[in-house]
Amino acid sequence: MDRSRVAYASVSEVSALQTNKVLRNTYILLSGTLLFSALMAGVGIAVNMPVLNPFLTLAVYFGLLFATAKTRNSSLGIVSVFALTGFMGLTLGPIISLYVTALPNGSQVVMTALGITGVTFLGLSAYAIKSGRDFSFMGGFLTVGILGAFLLGIVALIFNMPTLSLAVSAMFVLAMGGLILYQTSEIVRGGETNYIMATVTLYVSLYNLFTSLLHLLGAFGDE
What we know:
Elements: H1 2-46, H2 54-70, H3 76-102, H4 106-131, H5 138-158, H6 162-188, H7 195-221
């Protein structure tokens, strides 16, 4: 009996150490990608880069996402994830410039969206880590919700439907909040063991949360 308890304790300790390692590596890599993404956004703003065609952006995004997934278990995965987040940061630069120049309170809108994004991420992540709750039940709902919002976003873009576009942004705000809870819970509970893919998921959540909030705040704050 004592041996069984010792063996169980040893396995639990190893599992906890592995989980802590994945969580630590994820946040270290996420911090690095966010800084690099911010740098690339600054480059986009500095060179006055135009807003890229959304379909071209999606094509490059999915291509880099595929490359990251394929190389997630090698050192090339780090290169791929920085290429992905750097590109997304570059596309964000002209979007921020557009809001700053097009709205009388554009700078305030950008900073408010950024602040809400940061507070939301920190709050949801802390709750998932501290509570230890299992949010795996959200996986199916999030997949359907994100896919549905994505398809509706394409429809709104093609047919120029501003009201639907705002509804899609609201859907993405809710879905990205859920995705942060889900992914953090998966790391804490050992469901996600690859910190590169965990980083990508959290980065995409933050990117979409920020841009969706930017859209909503810009729309409702535009006088």
